[in-house]
Amino acid sequence: MARVVVEVMPKPEILDPQGKAISSGLTRLGFDGFTDVRQGKRFELTVEGEVTDAVLTEVRDAAEKLLSNPVIENVVAVRAEEDPGTEAGAR
Asked: Taking a C-beta distance cutoff of 8 angstroms, is the pair 59, 6 a contact?
């Protein structure tokens, strides 16, 4: 089995109250130097077999139709992720 990760972010012109709250919290805790924070969503989809270009295309289509709200969000990434049990994913 393989995993595909989808990342969705608010469109740049959309206000991001969660990002603003995180930004304020960082400042309150003494973390300086961050000028902006945007909060997005991450989805992990497990697929059977290998992640091919066709699978990634199908996942992007699903992300644009179901996982995101196209009025206020953009699908910014759809990618295969290494199995955490493999050497490259182990930490």
From this structure: yes
Neighbours of 12 (CB within 10 A): 8
List, in order of start, the domains of the chain with CATH numbers.
2-81 (3.30.1280.10)
Nearest to 32 by CA among 41, 23, 19: 23
From CA 10, how far away is CA 22, in angstroms rounded?
Answer: 15
Q: Alpha helix locations (H) across the chain?
A: 17-28, 53-62
- Give the tens place of pLDDT for each residue, 20-42: 999 999 999 999 999 999 999 99
pLDDT band (50, 70, 90) for residue 89? very low
